[in-house]
């Protein structure tokens, strides 16, 4: 893990800057690893369209998921056993990001610009990112990526080219979170898909208070997972079912 130089930017306190809870905290700065690190440790993340200036957000409420409370559905486990995909960790971070940036069936545009990709790839190279990949033979068919600081795990985006494969990556992340005793995984903005996976909300104030605790703890041990290749079938066979 690389020690980053101090950021040249100072981010404002989200609650003082946005007492009404609109979410947008400030505009500007850059996407260097130091700036991204500074933002995440203060509860902010970038979210903006390619033709807009960089916008930094801290939503009220915050969407999180408790790994210990997550249980996979029966249908997900059936598909994991049926297709037996290979699952890896931190083996194709940029490739996952570029797949997440592709147009979706419900939207032609994406917020994951080349500027975003370069910034997060540099952050990953410095040791503050993670990705989970799902493979069908040699083809990447699903995955997710995010930021990892201390014991803080921050989800960014996921993609799927086969039924349930993004959920398989998500389940793998939940298992890592359970094994590493993470307090929560940050899902940022609330949406129906995340809620269907078991996410819930925290007030921004509660999130920011908890954040300072988790980022100052020893970092997650990603090397433990990134040297292996996991079978979706094997993972499913040892799972606890959702009622």
Give the SSE layout.
Elements: H1 14-17, E1 24-27, H2 33-40, E2 45-46, E3 55-57, E4 62-65, H3 74-83, E5 86-89, H4 93-100, H5 114-125, E6 129-136, E7 139-149, E8 152-160, H6 165-179, E9 185-188, H7 192-196, E10 200-202, H8 204-214, H9 223-226, E11 230-231, H10 232-237
Parallel strand pairs: 8-9
Antiparallel strand pairs: 1-3, 2-3, 4-9, 4-10, 5-6, 5-11, 6-7, 7-8
Distance between the termini: 40 Å
Strand count: 11
Question: In terms of per-residue confidence, which ranges show pLDDT below 50 for 5 or more consecutive residues?
Answer: none
Reading the helices and strands in chain order gives: HEHEEEHEHHEEEHEHEHHEH
Look at the structure and give the mean pLDDT.
93
What overall geometry do the principal axes of the alpha carbons give?
A: globular
Strand order of the largest sheet: 10-4-9-8-7-6-5-11
How would you describe the overall organization of this protein?
With 243 residues, the chain is α+β, with helices and mostly antiparallel strands. Helix content is 34%, strand content 22%. The chain has helices spanning 14-17, 33-40, 74-83, 93-100, 114-125, 165-179, 192-196, 204-214, 223-226, 232-237, and strands at 24-27, 45-46, 55-57, 62-65, 86-89, 129-136, 139-149, 152-160, 185-188, 200-202, 230-231. The strands form 2 sheets. The chain has an 8-stranded mixed beta sheet with strand order 10-4-9-8-7-6-5-11, with helices on both faces. It has a 3-stranded antiparallel beta sheet with strand order 1-3-2, covered by helices on one side. A hairpin with an 8-residue loop joins strand 2 and strand 3 (55-57). Helix 2 crosses helix 5. The chain is globular. The chain starts with 13 loop residues before the first helix and ends in a 6-residue tail after the last helix. The model has no long low-confidence stretch (mean pLDDT 93).
